[in-house]
Every structure is written in structure tokens, then in C-alpha cells.
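Final report, closing paragraph on structural work. Over the funding period we assembled a curated collection of sequence-structure pairs, and we close with a single example.
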Amino acid sequence: MNKIYIASDHAGFEMKEAIKKSMNNISFIDLGTHSLDSVDYPDYAYALSNEVKKDEDSVGILICGTGIGMCLAANKVSGIRCANVTSVTFAELAKQHNKANVISLSGRYSSVELNVEIINAFLSSTFEERHMKRINKLDKK
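Its predicted structure, as stored:
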């Protein structure tokens, strides 16, 4: 994996900063936002998704209040498979079964510790090729 992009809206800003501090062994490419000032989550989801789309060896982490809005926006970008993840098991399965290249997290309803565990599980999991037939069907739309 080459690059790990991270982005949030204002509701996910504090979580994003806490994750970066907790995971200081990882070099994140931070695409914003950089304050608590109100912003529109699709802008950050699209910016991150387009960067991940350019480099298939990269992954992305999006954070908003629930993770739902970011996930919806990211999945509008062709080639992006974003999963809104709320557990370590879902992080592993998102990569193993769905070849997720982006995950979205909750900045308000999950702890920093859980989100760090989720990110570690996502980054360490690998796609299981036996699911490729289904992924190809996703990519045809």
C-alpha cells in the first residue's frame, strides 16, 4: 500500500486529529478539513476518493459524525468501494470480501481506541480473490 489518505468534515475533525496522534507511526496524507468550521462532507469525500482512484495501491479513511454521509458520497466516485465501518470484524470483511479501498468512520459515536483498531484491521487485511466475480459486477455499473 503506497499512500493512506485521510479526510473529515467538521464533525469528524477532532477524531481525525486524535487518530493521527494515536497512530503517529503511520504517515497519513491529510486532505482536510483543518478546523471545526462547518464544511460540506461531500467535498472532502470526493477529494479523497479521487486521490484513491488515481492510485489503486492507496486507501482512504473518511470521518464525519456517523460515517454514513461520507460513505454515500465516496461511493458516487467510480472505482471506489467505501464501507461505513463500526467494528474490527466489519473492517476486516470490508477488505477481504468487498475489496474496500476506503472506509468511513464515526467521529461522534465511536471511540478513538475503537477507530484505531478498525484502521489497523483494515490496513492489515487483504482481499480474498474468490470474491472477484462479485467485485467485477460492482465495477460494471
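The chain is about 45% helix and 15% strand. Residues 79 and 140 are 10 Å apart (CA to CA). We thank the funder for supporting this effort.
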